[in-house]
Amino acid sequence: MMILFLPLFLVFLFVGVPVFFAMLAGPGLILWGIGQERDIAFLYRNIYNGIDSFPLMAIPFFMLAGELMNRGGITRRLVDFAQVMMGHFRGGLAHVNILSSMLFAGLSGSAVADTSALGSMLIPAMEKNGYTRRFAAAVTAASSVIGPIIPPSGIMIIYAYVMGESVAALFLGGMIPGIMVGVGLMIVTGYLAKKNDFPVASKRATWRERLGAAARAFFPLLTPVIILGGILAGVFTPTEASAVAVAYALIISIFMLKTMTWRDLPEVLVRAALSSTVVLLLVGAAMAFKAIVGLSHLPEILAGWVLSLSSNPLVLLFLINILLFIIGMFLDAGPAIIILGPILAPIFIEMGVHPVHFAIIMSVNLTVGLVTPPMGLVLFVASSISGVRVESLAKTILPFLAVEILVIFMITYIPPISLFIPELFGFIR
Fold first, then answer.
1. Which end of the chain has fewer CB atoms < 10 Å from its terminal CB, N or C?
2. Is there a single domain that holds both residue 360 and residue 397?
3. What is the mean pLDDT of the chain?
4. Looking at the structure, do residues 100 and 33 belong to the same domain, yes or no?
5. Buried/exposed code over 89-126 (b: 16+ C-beta within 10 A; e: otherwise)
6. How confident is the model at residue 387 (pLDDT cuts 50, 70, 90)?
7. pLDDT digits (tens, 9 = 90+) for 393-410
């Protein structure tokens, strides 16, 4: 009877109940129906217990750092740097969009923040430069998934918290996959630019112009170096690194570049607080949901079913990627990781898949789900910014989505892509 909470949860999702309430109502109604009212109190206590965690403090701090960088005009400097490097290629502004996402990923770790910050700036610029608004929105949405893959990554912080893995190892494991996604999107853009005769954004920049743009973007680009360098050197923990990122963003924006004043700070704090609240409430609800998953013995049941399909890890990895891809169409990456991580990871670790390798497979797959129709969150954000209908945007994004799926399978079947850098730094022995 207890296991019925899962189909009930899915029914709530399909009828449009917000994820936070669906994750609580499904198990709550089943517990009430079988007369286990005491466990209902246990379920709702876990919302607070799930949020009350020192490692999770990194999420609001990184979101605040991203908001500070964006409000302080630092995003504009990154875009200018990307333009002098890539603007002279055919389809230059599309390449600039992708490179800007790769650079912005090192600041915020959020696909939604990436889409909002870069989309509001680059979508109108691309349309003015001769691109269709639909294509501009599709490029912005597709490239924004790099945000949670290249460190710092909010999704990987959540995975590390739930599964007890090293945040630094996951951050390092995401570097090569994130670069692969960016390069793959540029290859597709180059092909489409040649096929559709997209415009060149600007003439080739001189080395003096490139050095000038690099100098203006130097301090923002130093952010991921400080974050990762400090973590790897043992100077601070990932949570402390997020606070350092906020302090650094304040120093750059207010004192060095003087692109922001203290009067701007309340608005930035409110925006970061709202974004953080949404994420942390989902984490709390998902941790409560996870507790019910354990009580229902669902992991053992699902493990037995999965192992009955095949004993070949390669076949099972293929099937699990399909499953994650489908789940990513309907469920946000954070809750999906918290719900499915404890169920799926032990199965594959037992079969010999390295924990960091599986973490990267799951994180990248569910991140790509943010741009997957019909419910990809980033699709809706890009649609809101651009004014393009979600259905139209979903069709245009398909070539980019195909590349991201190809990268997922490369990560799955070539473990060194995820494990080489963590091993190089001694996180894997």
1. C
2. yes
3. 82
4. no
5. bbbbbbbbbbbbbbbbbbbbbbbbbbbbbbbebbbebb
6. confident
7. 888 999 999 999 999 999
One domain for residues 23 and 129: no
Q: How many domains does the chain have?
A: 2
Query: In terms of pLDDT, which residue wins out, 222 or 107?
Result: 222
Q: Do 43 and 103 share a domain, yes or no?
A: no
Looking at the domain assignment, is residue 429 inside a domain? no
Distance in angstroms (rounded) separating the CA atoms of residues 149 and 187: 19
- What is the per-residue pLDDT across 177-209, written as a single tens digit (0 to 9) for each? 999 999 999 999 989 888 887 777 667 778 888
Rounded to the nearest 5 degrees, what angle is found at the Cα of 281, between the Cα atoms of 280 and 283? Answer: 60
Residue 352 burial (10 A CB sphere; 0-12, 13-18, 19+): exposed
Residues 168 and 209 in one domain: yes
Beta bridge partners of 200: 90
Is 11 in the same domain as 43?
yes
What range defines the domain where residue 11 resides? 4-51
Q: DSSP alpha helices (H): ranges in 331-415? A: 333-350, 355-368, 377-386, 390-396, 398-413
Residue type, 271: R
